[in-house]
């Protein structure tokens, strides 16, 4: 249908435009038909894309809608109760409602924020607004609210706001057992202490499998005695205040089973208020801290010499003059200026004597003995918090000299307690535990490290020290206490500072047949008038230890006996009789 | 009454009109009623109206719409052209009046109130414009001495100018696309296809640079994090929530928070309550209407009918496609209603006029009649 032939009158310019626009001599009708067909195909494609998109939405809705299912996992889990050795609750679960929002269901966000913050004044307005402003299916608004608050919010009738009953962990004894028990996070997952141990020992798996309901879980029984714990903590708090110490800590350990009956590290925290727990000053100094234990370590040095069989209690050591070693000189606090025997080395706490004893054994024997006593390796217990001992990088004779009297090697106090237990319980090294353990179970994991008679001699030395030596102030009548003091000068900027000391006192009771060991540590006690300006252990840690023993011995069921002869006649004689 | 024995206008209409297409349109309108019932009460409640305010008005406008659709489908091609000319002239007058007296809503003047009815004159201008443009293009093919293409261009520029002044970029885009499609069908050389595509891209780019809210919408589409994508996100959640079978009538939650749940996002609201299956059905219905009209246009002997039917179908189909694609986050957000499904009040009558024209143009006519029509048309417009 070409118009040009029929109507040649059309102007020249119009013809040019036509040809430019539509082309020359084309059948426009046929062309139009083809192009309509083309449009049909195009529409088919466009609608196919839309249909595909629809089908994709229907097939994979989880791309966007799966928030709710995942968030349900976060609901605080149920945990078993934790009780002390007498059945007192240390940690338990209570039910508490938690407030959540479903932002996608909220119609008027401003209204919701306003009403909620008016009802719960401690909610952050900006935070709530931001949380509800997300496109998530589920957000927590406030965990663990009170039933009264729940009722009030329920009464507001805000759509898209709801409650879930959660388990909230509470610690009825609060700070008393802080470091032991540890704490949980807001989702009731253990993050420290025994709580974390619970999670890493199957509880978390149990939860994942969905079996950890409240009723199925047996309470976990600890070795702790809450009464002893309280007495120890009370006395340590008094001592910390009295001697203006930076920190105070203590352990009561059962020497026959390795159970930890009480453990306190001050300053501590309230596990019900987890914010405090992250303060680095509140670490557990007994397991996480490592310290030079000072003269307490002499017990290991003497035990090593006695156990070697080459020396006995009457072996003499030259303490006439300071021991010069390279450019160092080892002095005694109490200058003796003569030969002294083993007993005197211990009761006078002679550095020179201890150094000579260790040197006489040799560096390798010294190292081997300390390793055998568990002082060289990281001690791992149920508590997840632990620290490796700090050892000299190159252990030469000088190191042996200083380590002989407890300097130049830092161990976790709990580690030292384990070693001393072995020295007095007949020579068995028993890994400490925070769970209840019988003597039979303890024997199964115990390892003999020294001879029985060496252990007897060590008990005699400890008792002797309480009768005539540095531990006299802790000799609570009737309990036949034995003990060893330690005063470690602290290293400040690479030098030993005379005025800043870490004092330790290790006591055993009763010394003739030990049942318990007590370790008391005071960090930087200050000189007082009553201590005549002294800051050594005998003036602060030892009296504190005495007070603790006077309070805990009756609780622990240690029978007082008032007619016992001195250690020379009781322990040594008995020991000789058995040989 | 509609027997073949007696040739009455009604029986003639019944036997020549595309009854399947008619059925499809009635079905579409009924679906619109159902979805209006789902989507509009929450909006009405939100703005403080009677919950069924929009629903009642939807139904109220549906009845005259059906009358208009059926009535228009009786028209012959020449009557169609005349009606289009009248409607277009009226619409242009109304648009000018809107620009002069209409209230400014959200920065645009699109509505004018006449006798208590809000009228969006650009809606009624659209189908009339398509018919006039199609006529001009068909004339350009038939009568070379007539500067029909230039006239079509003038027509386009005139309407576009008015729409941009409102401003109404959505309608402008739609008009441009349909005009371009008509030009394409009318036999434009392929070079010009690329030329027009280039012009379209340049125009989009210009809009991106000059008009802030266009730029914002495109940027949001490209990078959802750059701004508030609340509507689109809620719409997508609605599709995901609904799944294959939907949550059930009244169970949807997206409609409570989507501001335009009864207009631009009715597709998503419907998906949440009635499921993707319903959406696919609705899509199939649109596809059927568009394809059916286009294939009838393809088969049509008359150039004007072919162009006009194609143009109307394209406009109808593109509008539906844009709305669904926006709902599904396939293209940037653009305010475009879903024909007969979205609530539109008076605009439904314009739509009815448009589909009535589609029905009229796709009626089966004997070739002789066609030729006589063409002859008279040629005589009358020469």
From TrEMBL, chain A:
Q: What is this protein called?
A: Penicillin-binding protein
Q: Where is the Penicillin-binding protein transpeptidase domain?
A: 251-529
A cellular-component GO term for this protein: plasma membrane
**Where can this protein be found?**
Membrane
Q: What keywords are assigned to this protein?
A: Carboxypeptidase, Hydrolase, Membrane, Protease, Transmembrane, Transmembrane helix
Q: What PANTHER family would the database entry show? A: PEPTIDOGLYCAN D,D-TRANSPEPTIDASE, PEPTIDOGLYCAN D,D-TRANSPEPTIDASE FTSI
The highest taxon in the source lineage is Bacteria
Q: Where is the Penicillin-binding protein dimerisation domain positioned along the sequence?
A: 77-186
Q: Which GO terms describe its molecular function?
A: carboxypeptidase activity; penicillin binding
Q: Which residues form the signal peptide?
A: none
UniProtKB/TrEMBL annotation, chain B:
**Is the keyword Cell membrane in the record?**
yes
Gene Ontology terms: biological process: cell division; cell wall organization; peptidoglycan biosynthetic process; regulation of cell shape
> Where does this protein act, in terms of pathway?
Cell wall biogenesis; peptidoglycan biosynthesis
Q: Does the keyword Magnesium apply?
A: no
Coiled-coil annotated spans:
none
Q: One Pfam family, please name it.
A: FTSW_RODA_SPOVE
**Protein known as:** Probable peptidoglycan glycosyltransferase FtsW
